[in-house]
Amino acid sequence: MKKLCILTLAVVLVLGMGTLTMASHGTLEDGAEVSDTAGITIDVGKYAQVGFDEGHYEDELFEKALKGKPGVYISDGGATKDKALDHWGSDLEVVAEEGQLPNPHVAFFQVLANTDVDISIHSDFGGWLKSPTLFIVSSDEDDINGIGSWQDNLAMIGNETGEDYENSFPVDYGTFNEKGRLDFHVNGAIWIQEIAQQAADTYTTEIQVTVAAQ
After folding, report:
1. Lowest CB count within 10 Å: 44, 71, 144, 205, which one?
2. What Å distances lie between residue 200 and 6, 68, 69, 129, 191, CA to CA?
3. Contact 189, 172 (CB under 8 A)
4. pLDDT digits (tens, 9 = 90+) for 87-115
5. Are 131 and 190 a contacting pair, CB within 8 Å?
6. How far does Cα 182 stand from its chain's mean position?
7. Which residues are bridge partners to 119 per DSSP?
8. Best CA proximity match to 159, nearest among 186, 200, 124, 210
9. pLDDT tens digits, residue range 41-75?
10. Which one-letter DSSP state was computed for residue 213?
11. Pairing assessment for the beta strands 168-171 and 155-158 based on DSSP bridges
12. Burial of 6 (C-beta count, 10 Å sphere; 0-12/13-18/19+)
């Protein structure tokens, strides 16, 4: 029994010494130090924030009633007018040359993310006008904390059957890291083709902006 206890103690000592040999060791004489390190790993999940700011600009794209007269109506200014006429035809009459100005009527939204993302725009036109409609995303790196310029058509959707709309655009993480929360506008254009195209009434829809990791 005594031999068994001695053997067991010897095994414990050997295992203990084996464990200690994995650690840093050395003299502490004359101010010397002994240290070791432990690696720490952590994963950060992909995360984003998106939101419309109704208080930033006028929150109704078409606050003023459309006259009903055939022609093109725009929500704000020249850049949106140019995009609409480029899509529908430059010979069309613009009923309101400056749209809803003097106040810029846009749907203003912001996006922030910690990864490369695709930003897309959607709308359900089920209860909307029969008149062709465009909702266009734009931004500007000078006037607002955005990207590109007002003339850039980042994304566009509409209610015309058979049209192939490009409704999304990419933004890389480096842009968010440099500029922070990015600003964007949704602008609108409507082409009333004939007086009786739809009844005089109030029409509503919603615009949805979606952010997805690439």
Report:
1. 44
2. 102, 8, 11, 10, 15
3. no
4. 999 999 988 656 666 666 888 999 999 99
5. yes
6. 8
7. 169, 211
8. 124
9. 999 999 999 999 866 655 578 878 888 999 999 98
10. E
11. unpaired
12. exposed
